[in-house]
From TrEMBL:
InterPro entries: Falgellar_hook_FlgE_sf (IPR037058), Flagellar_FlgE/F/G (IPR020013), Flg_bb/hook_C_dom (IPR010930), FlgE/F/G-like (IPR037925), LlgE_F_G-like_D1 (IPR053967). A flexible structure which links the flagellar filament to the drive apparatus in the basal body. Residues 430-472 form the Flagellar basal-body/hook protein C-terminal domain. This is Flagellar hook protein FlgE. Gene3D superfamilies: Flagellar hook protein FlgE. It comes from Tepidicaulis marinus. Residues 84-153 form the Flagellar hook protein FlgE/F/G-like D1 domain. Belongs to the flagella basal body rod proteins family. One of its GO terms (biological process) is bacterial-type flagellum-dependent swarming motility.
Length: 474
């Protein structure tokens, strides 16, 4: 062993500790950087000659030990477009390399990041604090499914959401087995029916008009109630709720629904197969005299033991018209077993669900990100639509990714190619904090300082020994 060998080893030790000090400095400086991943230091010894009888000093090198796979704390955020990944994976982002006509030009190489402090810029892109643009898959508004499997930069447009005419009505109700209408008299048989008693009996408002309901339990398809008979009709029917439908231009049309029982299974008249109900909608608020005011949907709902028999999963209102505006055919979806006739203590109709698929035009009000990993747009008409699905990639060896500016990473041969499937969960309105622990970094700082100082002492001691050796000839 030579003095100069010992000095060389000590100098290499100083260099290694200086590298470690640089890593610690970088970590501390970025302790508050969103999505930052700290760099630890791994020391490797270099052996020159070593045997059972002889060992010459070698050297030491310091290599960075990346912690790209180490999760940071997820903090809640008030910004709706902030997001974090809980688990494995990285957001796929694009790097801007130029600006042409006020629009960004992107590098045709994907970058990856855990920094999720994305906000919408003036062009509608989602860009994070590091200057990277979020990628995802466009959503087909008709199906709600992603369009293709190749991600692109997400851009939210400020275009109006066009109006959509109503075509579907989801309607689930329970009709009372004993309807307590205004005209109901517990001492009068069949008084709860719309066409109670003998159809030819005096006072029956529908007995002498063949264009309306003409017999117990036998309403004609598309029959209607005249405006002059409305009060009697209201007294012998029950409210079934109301719904706003939309025409093709987005104009709202308020549609009132009513249910009327038209046959009892026990009276032996009409169908005699079960309790029978009909559904009506109000077609003309201004109708008078013999003009139609309430239109029969034209579907018999026959119940046995509280359930429809035969089943009516859906029916179609042909040419639904309200106050002179024809919306067209509306499909009323009940689903399987969602129109029932069970006892109700109040004798009223219970509406369990009533909804439709139309809406007026609307402007984009707000952009957010849900926990399902989709970018959503909220519009002034109350609609919320999925706009894009965020792309997340994972790697077999994420700690081998190359760090680049802006808390982003680039693919290397050691990291492997990006993989899709089974990534972590996206958390909306949250960001991932730096995984730097200040207390731990200060502890490493003290140890590094001591090791650096010890290395300098070896250099000093070796220098003194060399001087003493040179002075031996004097």
């Amino acid at each position: 062993m030579s003095f100069f060998g010992a000095m060389t080893t000590a100098v290499n030790s100083i260099r290694a500790q200086a590298s470690a000090l640089g890593h610690i400095s970088d970590n501390i400086a970025n302790s508050q950087t969103v999505g930052f991943k700290r760099t630890d230091t791994s020391f490797y010894d270099v052996v020159t000659v070593s045997s059972g009888r002889n060992h010459l000093p070698g050297s030491v090198t310091a290599r960075p030990a990346f912690t790209n796979s180490v999760q940071g704390v997820i903090n809640a955020s008030d910004v709706k477009t902030h997001l974090a990944i809980n688990g494995d994976g990285f957001f796929v982002v694009s790097e801007r390399i130029a600006t042409v006509d006020n629009d960004p030009v992107f590098l045709n190489v994907d970058r990856y990041t855990r920094r999720g402090d994305f906000t919408v810029d003036k062009n509608g892109y989602l860009v994070n604090g590091g200057g990277y643009y979020l990628q995802g898959l466009a959503i087909d508004p008709a199906t709600g499914n992603p369009s293709g499997n190749t991600p692109g930069v997400i851009q939210v447009t400020r275009q109006f959401l066009p109006a959509q005419a109503s075509t579907q009505l989801d309607y689930e109700v329970n009709l009372p087995s004993d309807p307590k209408t205004v005209a109901f008299d517990p001492n009068t048989a069949n008084s709860e029916l719309l066409t109670a008693g003998d159809p030819a009996a005096p006072g029956n408002p529908f007995a002498n008009d063949p264009s309306t309901i003409t017999a117990v339990g036998s309403p004609p398809v598309n029959g209607f109630v005249q405006a002059g008979d409305e009060n009697i009709f209201l007294d012998r029917s029950l409210s079934g709720g109301a719904i706003t439908l939309f025409d093709p231009t987005g104009n709202p049309l308020n549609v009132q629904l009513r249910w009327a029982k038209v046959d009892n299974a026990a009276d032996g008249a009409g169908t005699a197969n079960g309790d029978t109900w009909n559904l009506f909608y109000k077609s003309n608020d201004a109708a008078t005299g013999a003009q139609p005011k309430w239109v029969n949907v034209g579907q018999d709902y026959i119940f046995q033991n509280g359930q429809l028999n035969p089943a009516v999963n859906s029916t179609t209102i042909t040419g639904l018209t309200v106050n002179g505006v024809n919306i067209g055919n509306i499909t009323v979806n009940h689903g399987s077993g969602n129109v029932t006739q069970f006892s109700d203590p109040n004798g009223k109709v219970t509406v369990n669900e009533i909804d439709q698929d139309g809406f007026a035009a609307g402007r984009l009000v707000e952009v957010g990100v849900g926990d399902n990993g989709r970018v959503t747009g909220s519009y002034s008409n109350g609609k919320t639509l999925d706009l894009a699905e965020i792309s997340v990639a994972r790697f077999n060896s994420p700690d081998q990714l190359k760090k680049i500016d802006g808390t982003a990473f680039a693919v290397t041969q050691e990291s492997g190619e990006p993989l899709t499937g089974d990534p972590g969960n996206i958390v909306g309105e949250a960001t991932e904090a730096s995984n730097v622990d200040i207390a731990d970094e200060f502890s490493k700082l003290i140890i590094t300082q001591q090791a650096y100082t010890a290395g300098t002492r070896i250099v000093t001691t070796t220098d003194e020994l060399v001087q003493e050796t040179l002075n031996m000839k004097r």
